[in-house]
Amino acid sequence: MSERITPYTRRVFYYETDKMAIVHNSNYLRIFEEARLDYMEKAGLDYPALEARGVLIPVVSASVRYLSPLRYGDEFSVETRMTAFNGIRFSYRYRIVRPSDGAVCAEGESGHCFLDEAARVPVSLRRREPEMYTVWKSLMDEETEHGT
Amino acid sequence: MSERITPYTRRVFYYETDKMAIVHNSNYLRIFEEARLDYMEKAGLDYPALEARGVLIPVVSASVRYLSPLRYGDEFSVETRMTAFNGIRFSYRYRIVRPSDGAVCAEGESGHCFLDEAARVPVSLRRREPEMYTVWKSLMDEETEHGT
Amino acid sequence: MSERITPYTRRVFYYETDKMAIVHNSNYLRIFEEARLDYMEKAGLDYPALEARGVLIPVVSASVRYLSPLRYGDEFSVETRMTAFNGIRFSYRYRIVRPSDGAVCAEGESGHCFLDEAARVPVSLRRREPEMYTVWKSLMDEETEHGT
Amino acid sequence: MSERITPYTRRVFYYETDKMAIVHNSNYLRIFEEARLDYMEKAGLDYPALEARGVLIPVVSASVRYLSPLRYGDEFSVETRMTAFNGIRFSYRYRIVRPSDGAVCAEGESGHCFLDEAARVPVSLRRREPEMYTVWKSLMDEETEHGT
Fold this sequence. Notes:
Four copies of one chain form a homotetramer.
Chain A: E1 8-11, H1 27-43, H2 47-52, E2 55-56, E3 59-66, E4 75-85, E5 89-98, E6 103-113, E7 115-116, H3 125-128, H4 130-146
Antiparallel strand pairs in A: 1-4, 2-7, 3-6, 4-5, 5-6
């Protein structure tokens, strides 16, 4: 993980639980999204600006491994890193940790592409937004250097 | 309720429950929305067409009285009626009933306006979409005749 | 509002929006719940302890007036106060403000009762949990003194 | 897919969309859950009875490939099959199809175990609920015969 990007943290909301008294499995994809957008913001990858310029970032794949259930009130921390980026597609990896007992609660990945909002076709960030591409590319290089 | 518009029915999904093992209070507003759009469709008030023409129907107010909690697997039926319509604002009333024991599970209301999507200002349906206005107006007259 | 209880704040998550590009109406009830539980915690009304002792706090009524839509990324602040408490039922009032432009985005209320988890019948907090009752009662007195 | 188990179908709800005007990625896990529980019911695998006897079925892993976005009002059909079952763990596979244009909208898998509700440890269905085990086992054999 990039040294300068701190983990995303918050506590579990009541409405995120289901009748098993644990966070519903679908909500982990929402937590991944929160963590991903927080990471982007901290890294200077301005997603709202990108969307304002007509480029969306849909999810093309996602996976989760549920290891220790989160419960109402649990504080959790999400370690996020970008694991691939070629200007057309990119990937993130997530690890949700519960500081109170050190448990790894879940791990997962998501894959994304850049999409033209109007045409609804994939676009090359390098050609469409070259300045933004440079920022994303630098971050990927930084991640690769520090990566596992 | 209009004689020709049948109630909206489905069963409770697992993920709609919370750790109290009942449907989360916020989900009743989602069920009201499902019932309202189903009512509109059955009544010939074509909401997708309206939205495609740049008119949105946001919610300006909503209220719920929770009477008997819905649980996972419960089948429920929503009786919906339009209770006011003047071409600028309109209101709906809802009653959620559980056929298995006849319980009234919840009652509520919602208020709405017509909104221009681009300008984000309220619009008069009569002036903006006169043909659609006529259909809505007729339905309101029909509701009034059969009302309460 | 009690002087010592600070407003609840966070930012809008992407998944809280709908295709109108605003926060879905149902999510305001979720935000109210977040704010209510945050208020309880700050006030020393220990809800997790209450639930652990078999007393639930279901919602018996709720209402929202939507004034200015919240959008993705908006920071918001919720001013919460307890407006009634008699040991059997109690009420909260909420005001969601967006600091960036000072807009009041929504206002609302919720009504609650204390419920025995096993028997699923309302209980008197005074008789069931007299020590907790005293804390709640003191807070209500404090709210009344400072109240509008 | 078992010949006798029909696909699960419904239409997309308005609140399932996000500001990209497509169904939010997390909701596909909810749709998988709806389809899985519908499949279980149609197959005679009585999940509510199992839960009433203190056996939960948490999700231990899940994955989704998003192929063609679902939009508000789309009717979709989910083809579900059980792909593995050994009495302790089991897996499902899902394919969401949109009949209007024949598009495969998403594919995915989920992995599950049987969990003792009180002890929160995995249990063997064969030992804990032998009669139910037999029903599940027969279905798995049936799936294997008809499987791809």
